[in-house]
Amino acid sequence: MIDLLNEHKSRQNHRYVVGLADGARVESVVYRGDTLCVSSQVGCAVACPFCASGARGFGRNLELPELIGQLDAALDRGHPIARVTLSGVGEPLHNFDHARTFLEHCRARRIKASLTTSGGPLSRLAEALTWHHNGLTLSVHAGTEPTRARLVPNAPSLDGLFGVLTEVVPTLSASKRKKTALAYLLMAGDNDSDAEVDAFAARARALGLTVHLYAYNPVPSSDRKPIARARYDALWARLTARGLRVRMSSTARIEQNGGCGTLVALRTDARAAAAP
Ligand code: SF4
User: Fold this and answer.
1) pLDDT for res 242
2) 2-267 domain in CATH 1.25.40.20?
């Protein structure tokens, strides 16, 4: 069903090109030896301008055996996978049924499974927040609507997102709330102004969720720019001072090889389709 075609090793990451039966390709990455990042689609319809995964548009959803196959292939290569995250190429909520079944499959195998989503459609987000998962991270990346629309174009508005979160988060168990997080990927000149970050803090504070503050990994398909380390540290301090619990990027997530937003997909023209 799938074939691991190429591999690239770096200090902490082991990145694979995954060949699919129809000729399409996605990527998966083993972080720190035991955590596998799995792709859910060939390409992505959300079209975030900073991301390599959606740079060629949307091709198709991965079938369930193609999701499970990425896990089995990593195990076959000798990686002792203990955690899986649906955070590779694609928007998992656009492949909703397979994403949910895959998380259940991992749970049945006692492998902790998490996901990252841009949040749409909102009805699916509301349901996914209640799934059994080991972490749901919502990619926000903005404090104002124009920035959100520019950086995460084909996804719900901030008002829509925070509306669902305000409704659902208080109904979750304390343990599930702890595993639900907001992500803010900092890009120089895009979303790193004090005003933008303060607007995000004002929306996020009442929810009490952890914030993952990511540093941008430049990719050849985008002209977005990473921010300087000093500015990253200053914005971490700024958000923290506004009462948020903020975690910095792990070093594995900011490696050029396999870091956030760097995975690519090649689709076969025959299977290319309209966005869901
Ligand atoms: S960042 Fe995520 S949602 Fe945005 S285009 Fe890339 S894979 Fe899709």
Assistant:
1) 96
2) no
